[in-house]
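Data availability excerpt. The first of two example chains:
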Amino acid sequence: MISGTITRQISGPLPPASELEHYEDVFPGAAQTIISWATEETDFRRRMIEEDAAHQRRMDWADMIRSYVGLVMGAGIAIAGFVVSYKLAIVGSQIAATVIAALDIGSIVGIFVYGTIRRQKSDQEG
């Protein structure tokens, strides 16, 4: 005795027309139900894709705003550090002024190095 299996793969939301016809023969109205389901599913997927794209645009916008706010805040803090260092140098605390200026410059350099490394890792992953 010889036995075998036939496998058929269907691509897309609808079965072939011959199968739809067979469904209709077995259960009247089934073809229309299947076509309606496929249409609803396609509409749903399109809506989800559009909503996902809109969400991604909002997230990109928020990231850009967050980045600019971070730049402005960082610049403000750096300037404040230099002002404090300058004032300390004027009143005669050169050591404290030097330490604050060094920490300020070191922080700025560290942030840029960290950002560069993070961007490089992100580029390699994406």
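And the second chain:
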Amino acid sequence: MSNEPKATRLLVRAADVGLGLVGLLVSLPMMALVAIAIKLTSQGPILFGQPRVAEGGRLFVLYYFRTTYVDRAYHNSRVTLVGRWLRRTRSDELPWVWNVVVGDTSYFGAHGLILQGIRAFKGQRGA
């Protein structure tokens, strides 16, 4: 696991929960508007989940607002109009607040490794 002292880990976790809960309260109205905008302008789910690997090998899903079309066959651009704005303002990452509150990731430190990248790296090394 981590080489940090237990007191440091507890302090970081307490800060994550406190900041995360405040972040949820403050960003909830904006997240509701973003969810409505995504639903009204494109088909598919509101959230996109990206599998990640946390410290110690624990798997979790990091959530983003969906910024791309689900079925690209009917669209010239993969990124939606709402998605373009979300990416430019980094608002697509607002759902990360939930991942912080539940302990999947932290405001302080790594956000987990992308599972697909780990598999590709192992494949290149022959592992």
